[in-house]
Amino acid sequence: MSTHAQRERLFLADLLESAGPNAPTLCDGWRARDLAAHVVVRERRADAAAGIVLKPLAARLERVQAEFAAKPYEELIQLIRTGPPRLSPYALKQIDEAANTVEFYVHAEDVRRAQPDWAPRDVDPVFADALWTRLERVARMLGRRSPVGLVLRRPDGRTAVARRGAPVVTVTGEPGELTLFAFGRQAAARVELDGEKDAVAEVEGAKLGI
């Protein structure tokens, strides 16, 4: 049975392939080739991928990622499609689903929404709930750098507190849009922000996410 992560993996690979290696993305300074290299390194080079969260290892990550970005683009796409090697933790279905569902969703939107003709994507209710469940778990980590209180709210009223404090800005949107907002894609997320004008501006410009 296909999982959310597997479906998003194949969708991301298809998007990267159709966009081409030089297509823009929402990731600052990254073209599609750079994003593809990031995905491959994260799954296949744990020694370098640690630099994503550990600053002392960031230089190593950058070097290894550049090496992968220099590979043929078609090879990178195929590595994404086929997934991690058998001995990788990501090869385990449970870990893949937990770690990659949101990762691949966000990066797929990084490719889609950087194109001038992008349109909203229909997200089925089951997948929307899966995104929301994951967002609830990490909301405070993603919102830790918000300069004001930050609440994420679904249209049905369910909320997740991303940061406590005052004044408070409430961000309302579907789970996929809230996920993009919380991962630092504020400008691309289709959401509504409620709060004091200055507080809203601060949240819009904050460095949210990992």
TrEMBL record:
SUPFAM superfamilies given in the database record: DinB/YfiT-like putative metalloenzymes (SSF109854)
Signal peptide feature range: none
Domain Mycothiol-dependent maleylpyruvate isomerase metal-binding, residue spans: 12-135
Any Pfam family the entry gives: MDMPI_N
InterPro entries xref list: CHP03085, DinB/YfiT-like, Maleyloyr_isom, MDMPI_metal-binding
Entry protein name: TIGR03085 family metal-binding protein
Organism, as annotated: Streptomyces aureoversilis
